[in-house]
């Protein structure tokens, strides 16, 4: 079962996903995206996601397209090596902005130190 925990910060939102992004589970992710406030950046944290199937990749592409149409940046974060390999094989690693935790958190700290503590529970 896929669960999404949303952290809305000043200029961006982080969606912490846990479970599998597969056929039959993706509506949870779509609803989470629909509930987001207007932000400049949406980050999907995949640290606790162990499987993404072809349908799940399609939904991620759809959500990327929707956010870009609104002028919002869409990023994936904490992609595990097995998931990273899926993105490489499908060549979606060149389509998605994949930000690794070590690159993302210094930006958060500079933007607002208090926001960093709000994200600790995500990973």
Would you mind describing this structure in some detail?
With 123 residues, this protein is an alpha/beta fold. The chain has one domain (3-119): STAS domain (Transcription Regulator spoIIAA). Helix content is 42%, strand content 29%. The protein contains 5 helices and 5 strands. The protein has helices spanning 26-34, 54-69, 81-89, 101-111, 113-119; strands spanning 3-8, 12-21, 41-52, 73-77, 97-99. It is globular. The relative contact order is 0.18.
Number of strands: 5
Largest sheet: 5 strands, mixed
Shape: globular
Helical percentage:
40-55%
CATH architecture: 2-Layer Sandwich
Summarize it.
The chain is of the alpha/beta class and 123 residues long.
Helix and strand topology:
Layout: E1 3-8, E2 12-21, H1 26-34, E3 41-52, H2 54-69, E4 73-77, H3 81-89, E5 97-99, H4 101-111, H5 113-119
Parallel strand pairs: 2-3, 3-4, 4-5
Antiparallel strand pairs: 1-2
Helix pairs in contact: 4-5
Task: List its salient traits.
single chain; alpha/beta; Transcription Regulator spoIIAA; five-stranded mixed β-sheet; 5 helices
């Amino acid at each position: 079962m896929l669960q999404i925990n949303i952290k809305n910060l000043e200029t961006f939102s982080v969606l912490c996903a846990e479970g599998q992004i597969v056929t039959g589970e993706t509506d949870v992710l779509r609803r989470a995206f629909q509930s987001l406030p207007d932000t400049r950046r949406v980050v999907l944290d995949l640290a606790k996601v162990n499987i993404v199937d072809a349908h799940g990749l399609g939904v991620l592409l759809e959500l990327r397209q929707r956010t870009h149409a609104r002028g919002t940046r869409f990023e994936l974060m904490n992609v595990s090596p097995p998931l990273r390999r899926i993105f490489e094989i499908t060549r979606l690693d060149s389509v998605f902005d994949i930000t690794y935790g070590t690159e993302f958190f210094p930006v958060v700290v500079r933007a607002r130190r208090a926001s960093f503590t709000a994200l600790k529970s995500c990973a």
